[in-house]
Amino acid sequence: MAWVVLFVAGILEVVWAYSMKLSDGFSKLGPSAVTLGAMFLSFGLLAVAMKSLPLGTAYTVWTGIGAVGAFVVGIVVLGETVSAMRIFAAALIVSGLVLMKVSSPG
């Protein structure tokens, strides 16, 4: 169950990163509120997951989901640049996340 909670926390990290971009430096109320709410929930769920997962594993997976998710949202939703090197870098992050998962208890 901790892995599911951690995954949701990671998805919420993507939500807050995207809504922060939309907030235009916290100058738009709606996206700013979504950013802060998603941050609060993401951190809270990360804390719950850390009750049973090792710190290094939980934090690495959480930030990895956020990094790769923000990368994908940037490309798909915001039209950011796609290059072979950026895709390779994201693939390395994902492979690291998989290795953390299979090498961790829980």
Automatic annotation (TrEMBL):
Q: InterPro entries recorded for this chain? A: EmrE-like, Small_drug/metabolite_transptr, Small_multidrug_res
Q: What is its main location?
A: membrane
Locations listed in the record: Cell membrane
Transmembrane segments annotated in the record for this chain: 33-50, 57-78, 84-102
Keyword Transmembrane carried by entry: yes
Per the record, membrane topology reads: Multi-pass membrane protein
Which UniProt keywords are given for this protein, alphabetically ordered?
Answer: Cell membrane, Membrane, Transmembrane, Transmembrane helix, Transport
Pfam families to which the protein is assigned, alphabetical: Multi_Drug_Res (PF00893)
Task: Please list which residues make up the signal peptide.
Answer: none
Q: Which family does it belong to?
A: Belongs to the drug/metabolite transporter (DMT) superfamily. Small multidrug resistance (SMR) (TC 2.A.7.1) family. Gdx/SugE subfamily.
PANTHER family per the record?
GUANIDINIUM EXPORTER (PTHR30561:SF0), SMR FAMILY PROTON-DEPENDENT DRUG EFFLUX TRANSPORTER SUGE (PTHR30561)
Q: What is this protein called?
A: Guanidinium exporter
**Taxonomic classification, please?**
Bacteria, Pseudomonadati, Pseudomonadota, Alphaproteobacteria, Sphingomonadales
Whichever gene encodes this chain, its name is: sugE
